[in-house]
Amino acid sequence: MNFISTRGKTAGIGFIDTVLMGLADDGGLLIPNEIPHISAARLKEMESLSYQDLAYEVFSYYTNNEIPDEDLKDLIRQSYATFRDPEVTPVKKLTDNMYVMELFHGPTFAFKDVALQFLGNLYAYVSKKQNEIIHILGATSGDTGASAIEGVRGKEGIRICILHPHQKVSRVQELQMTTVDDENVLNLSVEGTFDDCQRIIKDLFADVPFKTKYHLRAINSINFVRILAQTVYYFYAYFRVQKDKPGAKVNFSVPTGNFGDIFAGYLAKRMGLPVNKLILATNENNILERFVLEGVYRPGEFKSTHSPSMDIQVASNFERYLYYLLGENPQQAAAYMEGFKTDGVITIAPELLSRVQADFAAHGVGGEECLATIGSYYREHGYLLDPHTACGVAAYEKCSPAEEVCVTLSTAHPAKFNESIELVGIEQTYPQPIQDLFAKPQHQEIVDSSVEEIVRRLESFYTK
């Protein structure tokens, strides 16, 4: 196996080079040249594996033996040794047909830890092997930044800069990033939205001379390894549910902003995992819901919501799905993306929309619906949902038939979003690592949303 670009002008890339390239040099996203298929018999053999062993099995389909087996196993052990639950992503049953997969047991209490603890360790491994300083550049709507920083802070041979939208993340998310005082960490608070931050990142990675000069590496889900690491927990959850309800049809409801987490589920399904339906849960920034329901991908007016990590209008991983929807035709994918760049809209034909709706359902959750879901599940089940997970649960209630089983991905600990929890009249206790953040000084710079300003600050950071 090797890796190719969704736009067709970058191909024959190995696994390590895929990790390092991040965004393809032609501006597309890297994907495997073929998706490996796991047989039903092999899936049966994988059912009882621990999370770490399952991760090794899934990764091995993609690494091309570029990482020796023992090194890969050691990277996985290191990455998940920091999690507070031995299962890494435990699955809990809330109702007869609805389970929650808790993805928040990593060091920053968010699902991004599952991928970024591994990717951070992998970058450190590659930096040491190649004797090269790695400059990681990323944008965050809240959780990616803290997880990425935690994954590489203080590590030799790595510098990291994270852009986040100024005052548009939760207080805890901001503190998790900006209270880190390691010399290899730079936090830039951008006057603008997450989409502005993401646009700057893509522009800089598309500037191949700049990217090459500073050895820029991607931490956002434009990096395929992020997707691959998240694919593992779909297998893990499916196996746990089948143990409880053998033969059940299993849907997944996924809080979605950048289309990365749900694309990981789509990849797992393409690999042979018998996922029934992927339910795309979003908030008032519902470009993805409109695409699933109407076949029109067009950004709307940006809205700040109770679920800020999903306050995204342009989903960077959408291009990966578009490539497969178009029959793996890179010329068509490139044409659609060029049209989106010039016209701001993608519209697909009815026959393509039918294919989309065969794989996905979607529901955009309003603010009051989100808060009501938090309140009802706390009262009726004694379980506190964060607002993103609440969107997932509300979408499950809207889109999953009563006779089918659904796993809702719980993407963050509710303590990260106390602003929303307080609106429901619920008082929660912070885990000690989060409580400790409020006494620490912050380290960040507020900058405008121009590429030129970010370049100026990056060059100063990289050459100090």
TrEMBL record:
Keyword Amino-acid biosynthesis tagged: yes
Enzyme Commission identifier(s): 4.2.3.1
Pathway noted in the entry: Amino-acid biosynthesis; L-threonine biosynthesis; L-threonine from L-aspartate: step 5/5
Recorded GO MF terms: pyridoxal phosphate binding; threonine synthase activity
Species for this entry: Paenibacillus mucilaginosus 3016
N6-(pyridoxal phosphate)lysine modifications at: 112
Reaction(s) catalysed by this chain's protein: O-phospho-L-homoserine + H2O = L-threonine + phosphate
Pfam families listed in its UniProt record: PALP (PF00291), Thr_synth_N (PF14821)
Protein name, entry field: Threonine synthase
Domain Tryptophan synthase beta chain-like PALP, residue spans: 95-409
Keywords tagged on the record: Amino-acid biosynthesis, Lyase, Pyridoxal phosphate, Threonine biosynthesis
Family: Belongs to the threonine synthase family.
